[in-house]
Design goal:
Elements: E1 15-18, E2 25-26, E3 40-42, E4 46-51, E5 58-63, E6 68-69, E7 84-89, E8 96-101, E9 105-110, E10 125-128, E11 134-139, E12 146-151, E13 155-160, E14 165-171, E15 176-181, E16 187-192, E17 196-201, E18 207-212, E19 221-224, E20 229-235, E21 241-247, E22 256-261, E23 267-272, E24 277-282, E25 287-293, E26 300-307, E27 312-317, E28 329-337, E29 341-348, E30 364-365, H1 373-377, E31 386-387, H2 397-404, H3 446-449, H4 496-539
Parallel strand pairs: 2-6
Antiparallel strand pairs: 1-29, 2-29, 3-4, 4-5, 7-8, 8-9, 9-10, 11-12, 12-13, 13-14, 15-16, 16-17, 17-18, 19-20, 20-21, 21-22, 23-24, 24-25, 25-26, 27-28, 28-29, 30-31
């Protein structure tokens, strides 16, 4: 009996979601260059797109918070003499962008925070050395002002852009397809037309490792992973699209080699080094595949595929600092359509909780460089500085209320505290005394009504009936404080006039009680006399 076990992964349910139409850009004249490039680059502030322009190369710079239709005469960057082939935003300054062109030059531009309001023609730096068109440019991951450029003149140059100085020049034997820095920028990998995969020392250009790449003749792409591994995409002899995983210390054989499909578009790899997620998007395809890379075999695990009916002319991958953390967005692409539409696609990991999800948002690369260009040229290496993604998390309204609301111990027992001062007892309505009327002529039986007469003993002073209450009982007992003058005899809480009135009422009640007692005593004596007369008559 076989048991199917589903691999557990926090990114297993990742899916792609297109933003609303008002967040898309329409009317973009995407370049028609035949060069194998992405033609788009994005950061947390701007998205740049290579476009068709009369009289030279140009590219648009749009704010990521905008959208809508783009005017044909919208402001653009137009300083190149030929088509722009590649764009790269500086990782340490979101307002600086580098562009390479068919005019063999590399230029650096500064974009204002509010975006472009007029055409920008003044550049910061102009780097001139390549003899043929420059197809790719890459910023150093941790050193400030270090830029790598790949030209069709079989040269790789590493620049210090602050001084426009070439630090390293690498001459290759064949046309170079692609290059990629490693995590700390001490090495870089290249793929070339001779179907070779190489790892170079970044400061000397010396080849550290070399191996046979994909067997197909079409362009190959390369990405250096965080754990000293390399991902390449290319074609087989039968023109099947492939991806391969390599160990940077041994390029003799790939660790993994897999066929994808038989399409003929170049496959572009995009790597999220924070989440270890690899995205593969083919030029001319309508889909984006994503995989998770682990340290254990089989190393590459398929997650899912985003599909669309519209083919992609280019694709821009935004850095992690621009993602919407509250929406659990771990990546975002800007897809260029052939119909002139730039469509943002969010990669979202679904979560039920609105709180910050630290497991899917590990620390990411910050905008602070770890070393300077001078430190790097002197041989110093450093990993990129990192920052917490919780910096970009905005507290929800419920969390804000919980933070401001005073916290109480909800599990504590409720205790009722009784006051030490007792309230005065409520006054009970006094029952009215019943009138007792006994006729003198009516005989009364001794055995039923009265016990035999006994010796008279001295009577105690009559007690008060239950229905007679002293008015002093209604007044709560209070501590009497000594007072001046002759008012010490009166209760402190009752006025003198009220006290006199109460005393008179008490005397009247005592007199009434005494009258009733005398009357009862008289009636009893009359009853005894009547009984005696009856007994005497019976004896006669």
């Amino acid at each position: 009996m076989s048991v199917r076990v589903v691999r557990q992964s926090k990114y297993r349910h990742i899916f792609g979601k297109v933003l609303k139409k008002e967040n898309c850009y329409d009317g973009v004249r995407v370049t028609r260059s035949s060069q194998d490039g992405t033609f788009c680059s994005a950061n947390s502030k701007f998205v740049a797109i290579c476009i068709e322009a009369a009289g030279g190369g140009a590219f648009l710079v749009l704010k990521t918070t905008g959208g809508g239709r783009i005017d044909m005469n919208a402001a653009r960057v137009c300083g190149h003499k030929a088509e722009v082939l590649d764009l790269a935003w500086c990782p340490f300054n979101d307002n600086i962008i580098a562009s390479s062109s068919e005019d063999c030059s590399i230029k650096l531009w500064e974009i204002p925070d509010e975006g472009l309001t007029e055409n920008l023609t003044e550049y910061l730096v102009d780097l001139q050395y390549h003899q043929r068109r420059v197809t790719q440019i890459l910023w150093h991951p941790s050193a400030l002002n270090i830029l790598l450029s790949v030209g069709q003149d079989d040269k790789i140059l590493i620049w210090n852009v602050s001084t426009a100085e070439i630090l390293v020049e690498v001459n290759m034997e064949s046309n170079i397809f692609c290059a990629s820095w490693n995590y700390n920028g001490s090495l870089f990998a290249t793929t070339s037309k001779d179907k070779k995969l190489r790892v170079h020392d970044a400061r000397s250009g010396e080849v550290k490792q070399e191996g046979n790449g994909h067997e197909g003749a079409k362009p190959q792409r390369v990405v250096f992973l965080k754990d000293n591994k390399i991902i390449t995409t290319g074609f087989s002899k039968m023109s099947e699209r492939q991806y391969a995983l390599w160990d940077a210390d041994d390029l003799s054989n790939p660790v993994i080699l897999e066929n994808l499909d038989t399409s003929n578009g170049t496959m572009f790899p995009f790597y999220d080094q924070d989440c270890s997620v690899l995205y593969l998007a083919g030029k001319g395809d309508g889909s984006i595949r994503y995989f998770e890379i682990s340290d254990e075999p089989p190393f590459i695990h398929y997650l899912n595929t985003y599909t669309s009916s519209s083919p992609q002319r280019g694709l821009g991958f935004m850095n992690k600092r621009g993602c919407l953390v509250n929406s659990c967005e771990i990546a975002r692409f800007y897809k260029l359509h052939q119909k002139g539409v730039c469509e943002p696609i969010s990669m979202i990991v679904p979560r039920k909780s609105d709180l910050f999800q630290s497991d899917i948002f590990p620390d990411t690369v910050s905008d602070e460089p770890a070393i300077t260009a001078e430190d790097w040229s002197e041989g110093k290496d450093a990993d990129p500085n990192t920052m917490s993604m919780k910096t970009f998390y905005h507290e929800t309204e419920r969390e804000t209320k919980m933070a401001t609301k005073p916290k109480a111990n909800l599990l504590a027992k409720k205790v009722t505290v009784k006051s030490k001062v007792e309230e005065p007892p409520k006054e009970v309505e006094k029952p009215k005394p019943k009138k007792v009327v006994i006729a003198a002529s009516t005989p009364v039986k001794t055995e039923e009504r009265h016990p035999p007469k006994k010796e008279e003993t001295p009577r105690p002073e009559p007690s008060k009936p239950s229905w007679v209450r002293d008015h002093h009982d209604d007044v709560p007992k209070q501590e009497v404080k000594p007072q001046s003058t002759n008012a010490a005899s009166a209760p402190p809480s009752v006025s003198n006039a009220k006290f006199d009135e109460l005393m008179q009422e008490m005397k009247r009640l005592k007199a009434t009680v005494a009258e009733h007692e005398e009357r009862i005593k008289t009636l009893e004596e009359q009853g005894v006399t009547s009984n005696k007369q009856i007994n005497d008559s019976e004896e006669d």
